[in-house]
Write a structure and sequence with these properties.
This protein has 824 residues and is mostly helical. The chain has a two-stranded antiparallel sheet. The longest helix is centred in the C-terminal third of the chain and has 16 residues. The N terminus is likely disordered.
Length: 824
């Protein structure tokens, strides 16, 4: 369901939009919702004015050359590949900072590098120096050097910077050591210190509870989070998918002041209910965090309300805010709102960035408008925004999944020219595209490119094996598996997809051999390995082999439900080996694996197929005692059973249950009931069901055939002939039984021309007649005076030379009945 755009949001955006006198334009063709964003002269000038020009004293090309030459020192070695744009960034600081940073990047010895500025560095300069280091080792080395000098007062900001540097490098022991040192030196942590520590622990692969330890320490010092730290904690919960905790933390943080109550959505909310405490104008960053958090939680009404409140309070809309809202609206199909927000971005001089375009490309691909996504990609280049890896990869994946080979290949060529890495998702998607289009040579060349480069991960090998395996290209899948083995990137998932590929290719012995070889490669089969192999063997009518693997799975402690048992029991039932099925069920119970309604259904159906009423009803009673209600699937099995054994009363009771169910009786159960009524010549009841099926438009060939047989039995040949005509008109003559019923009917009604015509249709359709067919046709000939000896000669000929016999039958019928064109 598409969400309605909250009117307050756009109304307020309209109110904030400047009455522009610039030449910026927005083009919104109605046919495709395409927004073309042209920078106005003013906005372009604004950008140019903020592009600092390097001072003449600093020759960037010369400095970059110096960096490349000095590569023989250990710590500086890591920094010698600094890109020229990094040097440009240094220049933007102005003053002596660029020279200091250049010296630090080219001279290993700190005394030598910082000699011109010894004892003269300001606190701000120290902060920039620490923050701009490429490696954590160099940053820590500088920090310790400053400590040893004794002439610099390292404050809490400097500690915060090093905490972040070490945290991002995941050097947790050093972080804790630095914390102890800071406390020993009497440097008091501030709100941002704790915020930094919570942030780096939350993002650095540490458990969330370790990050929250710093929040507890903070509160133990009598300090409450400020707005920035609060936002960091909310982000932490959001990243872990704990949206309710994020909401609760924010609400508690703002538990004072007059609350802003968000209007309730009609939908039941999982995050919060109706309260967001805010009487103070929050920062744009906090609003962005909240909008994103509620959006990811699926509480879109809350996200829209916060957006509306943000505008109402006059908080500046940033590109981040609008990107988030575009993403929310786009993902929920409100594409016209996306276009309107893009237009407002231009009017507010909040120009789209690379993320804006990436969101647009992703949104329109999601809604299957690949052409519009491509146009936004082209516009990205036109507005001097270089598409990044996300842009290229998103579009390549879209081309691949849509099997747009030409476009995908051109796109890949462009990526290669720009030196952009094609990730594992694109690698496997392109391979799958080629494989599904049967372009095996190209698929293999594509795979070899990355295999020989050593850039394929174990997961990517798995995806490529699966691409070949799903299409039945077992040999190609094997070759990829061997390549993976050659690169020593085997894993359980690789084995699992190869086992699956063998199953698709019906190489059952190879599937078992590969499974058995896992341990020799140092891998232990997981639940998926066992389940896949058991399912393959069970569906291949090899339940005895599947049972052996099921026992191993049970002994490995990997059976958590009765699904694998159901697969094997079904296979035994299909082969009619009911004692084996029953024995395996008892074995399952012995392992304390609890049956579910599916396995009861499997057993009931197996015994129904065998016509074993006692066993089927026994499992039905056991199922109901276990608390599982009957369902239409089980009732259909019972209808099949009662029809097979002729239990009219039980069938009627079951059919009534189906009639009272939400879905109603299926065509199968109705035909079962119709079969019972027509066999017993219960005409009124049969007609009632038949007319009901016709009214619903579901009556099939079997339904008509049973009514025809019933009318024929009771001598109502006119009604039977009408049914036969309806079957022919509806195209319901497709099997031998139906043809025989109609030929037999016309023979009984002494209408040999219609019988012969039906026989001719039968022969043309490729359905081979049987003894009943020739017996009915023989009766027609007998009625017209043909001797029993001649008819007998034709019947014998059928057994000896069937093709010529059919021609002889046609000629005989033609000559006796005077029908032209009765040749086969």
């Amino acid at each position: 369901m598409l969400l309605k755009f909250h009117p307050l949001c756009l109304n307020d955006v309209n109110a904030l939009a400047p009455t522009s006198t610039s030449t910026s334009t927005s083009i919104l063709p109605e046919n495709n919702n395409f927004v073309r964003i042209l920078h106005s002269p003013n906005s372009t000038k604004h950008v140019i004015e903020h592009q600092h020009t390097p001072p003449k004293s600093l020759n960037l090309e010369q400095d970059l050359g110096i960096l490349k030459k000095r590569v023989n020192r250990s710590v500086v070695l890591q920094h010698n590949n600094v890109h020229i744009r990094c040097l440009t960034k240094w220049v933007c600081y102005g003053g002596r900072i660029p020279s200091i940073l250049q010296a630090l990047s080219t001279v290993q010895d700190l005394d030598e590098a910082l000699m011109p500025w010894q004892e003269a560095l300001t606190c701000k300069e120290i902060s920039i120096i620490l923050k701009e280091q490429v490696s954590w080792e160099r940053a820590l080395q500088i920090f310790e050097w400053l400590e040893k000098k004794g002439c610099y007062e390292l404050n809490v900001i400097h500690y915060n910077i090093i905490f972040r540097v070490l945290g991002e490098a995941q050097k947790w022991c050093l972080v804790e050591s630095l914390w102890d040192e800071m406390n020993a030196r009497g440097v008091e942590p501030v709100n941002s210190t704790y915020g930094t520590l919570i942030d780096v622990y939350g993002k650095g692969g540490q458990r969330k509870d370790k990050a929250l330890v710093w929040l507890k320490k903070m509160r133990s010092q009598g300090m409450e989070p400020d707005e920035i730290t609060m936002g960091i904690v909310v982000q932490l919960h959001k990243r872990n998918g704990e949206y309710q905790k994020a909401h609760d933390f924010f609400s508690k943080w703002y538990s004072t002041g007059e609350p802003l109550r968000l209007r309730r959505s009609n939908n039941t909310s999982k995050v919060g209910h109706n309260v967001l405490y805010t009487n103070v104008c929050l920062s744009s960053r906090t609003y962005n965090t909240l909008i994103d958090m509620y959006g990811k939680a699926g509480q879109l009404w809350a996200a829209f309300e916060i957006f509306a409140k943000m505008i109402k309070q006059g908080v500046s809309l940033t590109t981040v805010t609008l990107n988030t809202m575009i993403h929310l609206y786009g993902n929920h199909g409100c594409l016209e709102k996306v276009s309107l927000l893009l237009q407002r971005m231009v009017e507010l001089r909040c120009l789209p960035d690379a993320r804006t375009y990436n969101i647009l490309i992703s949104v329109y691909i999601k809604h299957n408008n690949i052409n519009l996504a491509v146009r936004y990609f082209a516009m990205m280049k036109e507005t001097c925004l270089e598409p990044d890896l996300v842009s290229y990869r998103t579009l390549l994946h879209a081309y691949s999944t849509r099997k747009m080979v030409h476009e995908a290949e051109e796109h890949m060529q462009e990526m290669d020219e720009k030196g952009l890495e094609i990730d594992e998702f694109a690698q496997s998607a392109v391979t799958r595209m080629y494989v599904e289009l049967c372009m095996l040579k190209k698929s293999w060349l594509w795979f070899r490119r990355f295999h020989l480069a050593g850039s394929i991960t174990s997961d990517c090998y798995s995806a490529i094996i699966d691409a070949y395996g799903q299409q039945g290209y077992t040999l190609e899948a094997e070759r990829v598996f061997n390549c993976c083995k050659e690169r020593k990137k085997l894993g359980v998932l690789v084995f699992n997809v190869m086992i699956k590929a063998y199953g698709v290719g019906k190489c059952y012995d190879k599937a078992c051999q590969l499974f058995d070889s896992m341990e020799t490669y140092g891998f232990v089969a997981d639940k998926c390995s066992y389940s896949s192999l058991i399912h393959i063997l069970a569906t291949a009518d090899r339940p005895h082999i599947a049972k052996a693997y099921l026992k191993r799975m049970q002994e490995a402690g990997l059976v958590t439900d009765c699904i694998p048992y159901a697969a094997v029991i079904t296979s035994f039932g299909k082969l009619g080996q009911l004692e084996q099925a029953k024995g395996l069920y008892k074995e399952m119970i012995g392992y304390n694996v609890q049956p579910d309604v599916i396995i009861y259904g499997v057993l009931i159906n197996a015994f129904a197929d065998a016509g074993s009423v006692k066993e089927a009803v026994s499992f039905l009673d056991e199922m109901q005692r276990a608390g599982f209600p009957r369902n239409p699937t089980i009732d259909n099995s019972l209808m099949k059973l009662y029809t097979k054994v002729g239990y009219l009363k039980e069938a009627q009771e079951t059919y009534k249950l189906l009639q009272s169910s939400e879905q109603g009786p299926s065509i199968f159960s109705s035909n079962c009931m119709l079969d019972l009524y027509t066999e017993r010549l219960m005409v009124e009841q049969a007609i009632e069901i038949f007319e009901s099926l016709k009214q619903k438009g579901v009556a099939n060939e079997f339904s008509y055939a049973m009514m025809l047989c019933m009318y024929k039995k009771i001598g109502r040949l006119d009604e039977a002939i009408q049914i036969a005509k309806q079957m022919r008109n509806l195209g319901l003559l497709t099997d031998l039984l139906s043809y025989n019923n109609i030929i037999g009917l016309y023979s009984l009604a002494r209408r040999p021309q219609e019988a012969t015509k039906t026989f001719k249709e039968m022969a043309k359709s490729g359905i081979q007649p049987d003894d009943f067919t020739f017996s009915a046709l023989g009766q027609c000939l007998l009625n017209y005076g043909v001797s029993k000896q001649d008819i007998g000669r034709l019947e014998v000929m059928v057994k000896k030379d069937a093709p010529n016999a059919l021609q002889e039958w046609m000629l005989m019928l033609s000559s006796v009945l005077g029908i032209d064109g009765c040749t086969y």
